[in-house]
Amino acid sequence: MEQTFIMIKPDGVQRGLVGEIISRFEEKGFYLKGLKLMTVERSFAEKHYADLSSKPFFSGLVEYIISGPVVAMVWEGKNVVVTGRKIIGATNPAESAPGTIRGDFAIEIGRNVIHGSDSIESARKEIALWFPEGIVDWQSNLHPWIYE
Ligand code: DAT
Ligand code: MG
């Protein structure tokens, strides 16, 4: 089944939003397949955001991501990449709808609490980067209550 990479950024961890964010994905019906709290080095953050390296905000973005621990996760489910982005909300919290994570918990683009893969291909790359050890293989017994 489809998987996505979700990361709670340092502001989300510092602000005590880890449980709330995990709950939103869990309650939706997605399956938690990977989870770890970690700090990342500059070179790692630069690799994660390599596609944005030419942007003027790149160095600030990297400083922010390395400024404290983050929670790296893999979530699984039907259409989890696109639906995960909907749960997260628009990149700029000023435009994120209420009810989305960024819409409910963030104000500025440079403190937008959470990352989610933007395509199946980026999810594949990001999961490989953040979980080189692999992820736990387990199946939820709730499956027939969530899928028809
Ligand atoms: P998203 O995180 O919604 O996938 P993105 O991949 O375009 O957005 O950018 C990655 C992060 O970079 C984003 O979460 C916040 C920051 N960012 C994006 N555009 C920015 C901008 N115009 N000014 C400042 N920071 C920005
Ligand atoms: Mg992105």
From TrEMBL:
Domain of life (superkingdom): Eukaryota
Entry-linked InterPro entries: NDK-like_dom (IPR034907), NDK-like_dom_sf (IPR036850), Nucleoside_diP_kinase (IPR001564), Nucleoside_diP_kinase_AS (IPR023005)
Gene3D superfamilies according to UniProt: Nucleoside diphosphate kinase-like domain
TM region(s), chain numbering: none
Keywords: ATP-binding, Kinase, Nucleotide-binding, Transferase
Keyword Ion transport appears in the UniProt entry: no
Protein's GO biological process: CTP biosynthetic process; GTP biosynthetic process; UTP biosynthetic process
SMART domains: NDK (SM00562)
Required cofactor names: Mg(2+)
One MF term in the entry's GO annotations: ATP binding
Name of a matching Pfam family: NDK
Catalytic activity field: a ribonucleoside 5'-diphosphate + ATP = a ribonucleoside 5'-triphosphate + ADP; a 2'-deoxyribonucleoside 5'-diphosphate + ATP = a 2'-deoxyribonucleoside 5'-triphosphate + ADP
Domain Nucleoside diphosphate kinase-like per the UniProt entry, residue ranges: 1-137
Name of this protein: Nucleoside diphosphate kinase
Organism: Cocos nucifera (Coconut palm)
Lineage, top ranks: Eukaryota, Viridiplantae, Streptophyta, Embryophyta, Tracheophyta
